[in-house]
Amino acid sequence: MSQSTEHIENTRTVIKPPNPRFKNWKIVYRKLKKNKSAMVGGFLILFLIIVAIIGPYFTPYAPSTQDILNKLQSPSADHWLGTDNFGRDIFSRIIHGTHLTLIVGFFSVLLGGAAGVLIGITAGYYGGRIDSILMRLMDILLAFPSILLALAIVTVLGGSLQNVIIAVAISSVPVFARIVRGSTLSVKKLEYIDAMRALGASDARIIFKHIFPNITSPIIVQATLNIATAILSASGLSFLGLGAQPPQPEWGAMLSDGRNFLYNAPHVALFPGLAIVLVVLAFNMLGDGLRDAFDPKTKE
Amino acid sequence: MFKFIIRRIIQTIPVLIGVSILVFSMMHLVPGDPAQIMAGESAPKEQVENIRERLGLNDPLPVQYFNYVKDAVQGDLGNSMRSGRDVTTEIGARFWVTLELAIYSTVLAVFVGLIVGVISATKRYSFADTSLMIIALFGLSMPNFWLGLMLIQWFAIGIDLPSWVPFINDTSWFKPSGWGSFAQVVLPVVTLGTASAAIIARMTRSSMLDVIDQDYIRTARAKGVKERVVIYRHALKNALIPVVTVVGLQFGGLLGGAVLTESVFAVNGMGKLIIDSIRARDFPVVQGTILVVALLFIFVNLAVDITYRYLNKRIDLD
Fold first, then answer.
1. Which ranges does the record mark as transmembrane (chain A) (predicted)?
2. A286 touches chain B (CB under 8 A)
3. Burial grade of A58 (CB within 10 A; 0-12, 13-18, 19 or more)
């Protein structure tokens, strides 16, 4: 490149107006940073992710090691959260189960969210008959209470953690589809989309380059809150014996084991439940904060 | 209004058809031969054939579906593989148990949720507001099956109280299982209603705050209308409109949540029936119960839409 063209390139970068989208993210980040509850939620999630990754290397016991002589022990210095009916260390099992819970939460929302976004954006963008058909299909899925739909799917597929992810994902598709369709409809009406079309941009280009980046905020908020509900549904299915199979240290399944010992060892059910509450709480706090931060009505 | 109701009812028809197709397909989507699964792995061939014949599994799929819908419309949802009884009879009494559980929980949730929401909104950013909203966030984040177990531990098995507490020795006030008496109903209703109460409280609070900031409320205050009248007559009435939708959705959620609650408290309702039938691979009962719950949910949503429209005539639902 000759010196003169390089100079022109440089001037071009200098006079380039700031990307409004980037500016918006900065505002969102600033708002989020001021929201204590959201920050606590965010750090909790970060902490849990770290625990899920490195925690298993530092637990005092292996999650499946049985010690029948020491079964149903109350919390002590040896076993911080006590032992279960097989003498397994509950603290170690909870740490080992963290990644299962997070994986189920993330993947079911990723799968369900991706499908929902695709359906919602297609319905909203093309409108007409495609919209009617897709949204009626979503109405059918919405006609089932979500845990019941997940239950029906797991019944068909068979009980396993993988199938729980699929079931919870499917039951979250219509929620995403509806939100994304609504947002797509409002963005589609904007003049610059008409301008893009007039310039001859293809549908795919308009959808992915111009509509999708403008509807990410409701998707991010919904995804965060949905991870919370996905974790609740998935642990519920495992509690019913339709998800994780023994001896997997899944929290819902651990709780289910604990229900038989409420009289003499209530801690077996107490701690896995508290762990679920902590994770769900963290995602709800961050989700609430993100919703406020993305809302242009809330002040910085 | 009448036209709207008719149109809304017509709109539910495709959903009803879709739901029936989905529920019907359940049995056919299971990998393997449904008759073999129901009979058990080691069942003799004749028995499997017998089941196949009895369920009409030899007919072409469209014929099977047509027969399923024809029978279902007449209230015949097939026979249970376990007990041999009518699925409709199996659901019968259990339907009312689940409906009762869901209605009581909704009433509790609306009552508690509205009070908490209004207090929070009128005392915005106060200690009471912050604490109530933190409690609501916890209520929303608790798995109801865990809450149920904890309530059993605290209030059915009970905790021994120290001797200086007068009159009561422990907290074993309620029963841990069953359905019918007051002592049996309290814990499942609280378990199922807590999350909904939290959601309604948050919704009421934000909806009230939206309304309170509006001009007509300021005008009412400027005119010297008493604060109590401003809050209850002017603000709450309008703030309730979005809350109605949430209550409707919650009712549906409660029908689903009843599956877990009934399982924790051994309440013999539809939720427990579904779980027991899934474990026994009793497909006709699973299908029938899911169909009934979905129908109930659809009709509740229909009623909510109509109420919403009635409350807020300005809204055009098209």
1. 38-58, 102-128, 140-158, 164-180, 219-241, 261-283
2. no
3. exposed
User: Which residue carries 């019918």 as its tokens?
Assistant: B180
Q: Indicate if the pLDDT at residue A114 is higher than 70.
A: yes
* ipTM of this complex: 0.89
Domain presence at residue A35? no
Assigned CATH class of B94-311 = mainly alpha
DSSP B78: -
| DSSP code per residue over chain A | --HHHHHHHHHHHHHPPPPHHHHHHHHHHHHHHH-HHHHHHHHHHHHHHHHHHHGGGT-SS-TT---GGGTTPPS-SSSTT-B-TT--BHHHHHHHHHHHHHHHHHHHHHHHHHHHHHHHHHHHHH-HHHHHHHHHHHHHHHTS-HHHHHHHHHHHH-SSHHHHHHHHHHHHHHHHHHHHHHHHHHHHTSHHHHHHHHTT--HHHIIIIIIGGGSHHHHHHHHHHHHHHHHHHHHHHHHTTSSS-TT---HHHHHHHHGGGTTT-THHHHHHHHHHHHHHHHHHHHHHHHHHHH-TTS--
Size of interface A-B (CB pairs under 8 A): 124
Residues above pLDDT 90, as percent of chain A:
56
- Report domain extents, chain B: 94-311
pLDDT tens-digit profile of B114-136? Answer: 999 999 999 988 999 999 999 99
| Residue A28 included in any domain | no
Task: Indicate whether A19 belongs to any domain.
Answer: no
Residues of B in contact with A155 (CB under 8 A): 26, 30, 278, 286
Q: B163 in helix, strand or coil?
A: coil
pLDDT of A140 > 80? The answer is yes
Mean pLDDT along residues A1-28: 56
Domain that includes residue A282, residue range = 44-60+79-294
pLDDT for B150-207, tens place per residue?
999 999 998 888 888 888 888 889 999 999 899 999 999 999 999 999 999 999 999 8
Q: Name the pTM for this structure.
A: 0.90
DSSP 8-state secondary structure symbol assigned to residue B181 = S
* B142 vs A contacts (CB less than 8 Å): 273, 277, 280
CA–CA gap between residue B128 and residue B124 (Å, rounded): 8
